[in-house]
Design a protein that fits this description.
The chain is of the alpha/beta class. It has a single domain (7-278), classed as TIM Barrel. The protein is 42% helix and 16% strand. It is built from 10 helices and 10 strands. The protein has helices at 21-31, 49-62, 81-87, 96-112, 132-149, 165-175, 186-192, 197-204, 238-248, 265-278, and strands spanning 7-10, 36-41, 65-71, 117-120, 154-158, 180-184, 208-213, 215-216, 228-229, 254-256. The strands form 2 sheets. The chain has an 8-stranded parallel barrel. Strands 8-9 form a two-stranded antiparallel ribbon. Helix 1 packs parallel to helix 2 (49-62). The longest helix has 18 residues, at 132-149. The radius of gyration is 17 Å and the shape is globular. The chain starts with 6 loop residues before the first strand and ends with a helix. The relative contact order is 0.15.
Length: 279
C-alpha cells in the first residue's frame, strides 16, 4: 500500500495507445521505475469484458499498484475554452447515455481491481445555480454517484479550469453525496488563468483525495488554454504546491501526468526526481 505523497504516474502520460496496455505497464515499471499508477480509458477504446480481462491479467503480471482509474470521452474538444465547455463530460445532455455507459464499464474494472477512486472531467459547472443547465449537472452527477456508490467507488471531479474552486465547492455541496471527491490538477487552473492553485487547494482541501502533477503556462490570449510544459518549468510553483499539500494533510499519491501524451520517459523521470527532491 502506498504512503501519503508517494510518487506515481498516469498510464496515458506516454502517448502509447491504450491497445498496447502491457507495453505501457512495462514502460512504467522498467523505464520510469515507478510502482503507483492511475489507469485510464479515453472513449475510443470500448472496455468490453475481453479488454477488461486482458488489462487485469497485465496488471497482475507487472504487480503495479493502482491508486485510481479515469475515464475521458470520445468527442471532447480542448481547442478552446468555448469548445471545452460545449463538449467535455456530461454538460451537453446528448452525450450522457453513451458516456455514462463508458463510465460504468470502467466502474466494473475499478471494482474488479479493488480500487475505490474513479476520476473524470465532469463537464462545465455553470456559476448560476438556479438555471436548467446547473440542475442538469447536479442530476446527472447524482445518478453517476449513486451507481458508483453501490460498488463502493468515489467519483473524483477533476479541477478542469472551467469553473472556479468556489463554484466547484458549491456544486459538491449541492450534489450532497458522500462518495464525491476532488482530483486536483493545479496546471488546469493555470492554463485558463481562473485562479491561484494554492488558494484553490485551500478552498477544496477537505475534498482533495487525488492529485495530478503537470505544469503549464498562462494562456497567450483570452479563450484559449495555456500550453503544458515540463514539471517545474511552468507557473504552478511546484515546490509551493507540494508544501501546501503537506500543510493540508493530503494523504494520497502524487501522480505525474502527461496529458495528451506529450511526456517522454525522460520527462517523467525528471518529474519523478524533482518531486523526490521536494519530499
Amino acid at each position: 500500500m502506498f504512503k501519503p505523497m508517494d510518487i506515481g504516474v498516469t498510464t496515458w502520460s506516454f502517448g502509447v495507445p491504450e491497445s498496447k496496455f502491457e507495453e505501457i505497464l512495462r514502460t512504467i515499471k522498467e523505464d520510469a521505475q515507478l510502482q503507483i499508477i492511475q489507469i485510464g480509458a479515453f472513449g475510443k477504446l470500448e472496455l468490453t469484458n475481453k479488454v477488461q480481462e486482458k488489462w487485469l491479467e497485465a496488471l497482475a503480471s507487472y504487480d503495479l499498484e493502482v491508486a485510481a482509474t479515469c475515464v475521458a470521452f470520445d468527442g471532447e474538444d480542448y481547442s478552446s475554452i468555448e469548445a471545452a465547455i460545449a463538449t467535455v463530460g456530461f454538460y451537453d445532455p446528448q452525450y450522457f447515455e453513451i458516456r455514462f455507459k463508458h463510465l460504468c464499464n470502467m466502474a466494473e474494472l475499478t471494482s474488479a481491481l479493488g480500487v475505490t477512486k474513479l476520476t473524470t472531467h465532469l463537464g462545465f459547472i455553470p456559476p448560476e445555480t438556479s438555471g436548467a443547465k446547473y440542475q442538469h449537472m447536479v442530476d446527472v452527477t447524482k445518478r453517476i454517484l449513486d451507481v458508483l456508490g453501490e460498488k463502493g467507488i468515489h467519483l473524483g471531479l477533476e479541477v478542469g479550469g472551467l469553473e472556479t474552486a468556489e463554484d466547484l465547492l458549491g456544486f459538491i455541496q449541492h450534489v450532497d453525496r458522500n462518495n464525491v471527491m476532488v482530483n486536483f490538477d493545479p496546471a488546469n487552473l493555470v492554463r485558463t488563468d481562473i485562479g491561484d492553485p494554492i488558494e484553490a487547494l485551500e478552498t477544496l482541501r477537505e475534498h482533495v483525495k487525488l492529485v495530478h502533477l503537470k505544469d503549464a503556462i498562462l494562456p497567450a490570449e483570452e479563450g484559449l488554454f495555456g500550453d503544458m510544459v515540463a514539471l517545474g518549468q511552468g507557473a504552478i510553483q511546484v515546490g509551493r504546491f507540494v508544501g501546501k499539500l503537506r500543510e493540508i494533510g493530503y494523504s494520497g499519491p502524487l501522480l505525474i501526468e502527461g496529458e495528451g501524451g506529450y511526456n517522454t520517459v525522460e520527462q517523467v523521470c525528471n518529474a519523478r526526481d524533482l518531486l523526490s527532491s521536494l519530499l
